[in-house]
Amino acid sequence: MPFAPEPAFQHGQPQTTGVLYCNLGTPDAPTAPAVRRYLKEFLSDPRVVEIPRAAWLPILYGAILPLRPAKSAAKYATIWTKDGSPLKVWTAKQATLLQGWLGEHGHRVKVRYAMRYGSPSIASQLDALKAEGATRILVLSAYPQYSGTTTASVVDAVNDWAGRVRSIPELRFVNRYHDDRGYLAALAARIQRHWAEHGQPDHFVMSFHGVPQRTLQLGDPYHCECHKTARMLATWLQLEPERYSVTFQSRFGKAKWLEPYTEPTLVALARKGVRRVDVACPGFTADCLETLEEIAQEGRDAFLQAGGKSFEFIPCLNDDPAWIAALGAIAVRHLQGWPTEQAPDKAGLAASKAAALAMGAER
Ligand SMILES: C=CC1=C(C)c2cc3[nH]c(cc4nc(cc5[nH]c(cc1n2)c(C)c5CCC(=O)O)C(CCC(=O)O)=C4C)c(C)c3C=C
Ligand SMILES: [Fe+2]
Ligand SMILES: [Fe+2]
């Protein structure tokens, strides 16, 4: 395979460290054609649908891509903002705030965000970081819990890009932060604030995105990491086990997914006489279709129709300053040992000149 020509590295050219903040991706518009393009890319990823291509592609092209986009587009239309899809709006804002936080803490890095599916693509943003002089790149995904379906798929996309590049930057990946203290503290503080304003619910549901049950048997750590996050968050919130549930949402397709499923749990709680339920989605660091539509709209309707009286959705971390600080601290830990600025700054130059003079060296 031919490698594209690249400008040769120039001595004295400033080298920078890049941080690539990755999220899942979202359609470019709440329309059937845009959703079809997005779903085609997403659901063609062998990390996401782990069944043999020969069996899957006829289903994807024969049933899903002709039918699902219009239905999904109508759902996207209910959450779309003037600036676009919430997932992209939040992800872009998080990247800007992360850049600011790192700068304030003395780390001269260049932060860009990318989407695994859709735009801006991972390859385009790696190209941009490289063009900006990044010789070291930290890849940080918006997924606290590791899953082959998400985290590993980002690694694949980065490696595909590296496979086409001559001079590959040094690469590092953050695989998980499901038990990170800053992440948990930010979640706990957000939930506590909600309860300080609205009072405590009768029952608290932590709903995570599901994956096929089979991935758990195949060794995917996602299920365990979701449970660890939930357990630790419950400890932060001082909740006894009978006061909360851990559930999995967004089931896709006919196979068994991780259980218990969110919506049937909400219905069962209402039928059991639970009057008020609060739901948070700790695995989603930005609000998106799956939280704003599936939980805050469909989940609410299901709970209230089954006899529940009050349903509160607690928004995701989004641009919460405690979350940005946690993300910054995670990045800093993984940047350790990497000089964040190689070209000497003014103070460095002055110090080296002074040292040279003191040693009597000619200048
Ligand atoms: C939080 C982590 C996520 C995991 C794990 C995950 C696995 C996974 N998802 C699908 C299928 C779909 N997911 C869809 C939307 C969606 N998924 C996540 C996150 C995870 N997915 C997010 C943040 C979103 C929302 C995107 C947005 O635009 O707001 C969709 C598309 C929506 C729809 O048409 O209903 C599908 C499809 C599978 C199959 C899977 C693991 C096997
Ligand atoms: Fe998903
Ligand atoms: Fe969904």
UniProtKB/TrEMBL annotation:
This is Ferrochelatase. HAMAP family: Ferrochelatase. Catalyzes the ferrous insertion into protoporphyrin IX. Fe(2+) binds at residues 209, 290. PANTHER family: FERROCHELATASE (PTHR11108), FERROCHELATASE, MITOCHONDRIAL (PTHR11108:SF1). SUPFAM superfamilies: Chelatase (SSF53800). Pfam families: Ferrochelatase. Belongs to the ferrochelatase family. Its main location: cytoplasm. It catalyses: Fe-coproporphyrin III + 2 H(+) = coproporphyrin III + Fe(2+); heme b + 2 H(+) = protoporphyrin IX + Fe(2+). The keyword Cytoplasm applies. The lineage of its organism: Bacteria, Pseudomonadati, Pseudomonadota, Betaproteobacteria, Burkholderiales. It comes from Caenimonas terrae. Keywords: Cytoplasm, Heme biosynthesis, Iron, Lyase, Metal-binding, Porphyrin biosynthesis. PROSITE patterns: FERROCHELATASE (PS00534). Pathway: Porphyrin-containing compound metabolism; protoheme biosynthesis; protoheme from protoporphyrin-IX: step 1/1. It is found in: Cytoplasm. Its EC number is 4.98.1.1.
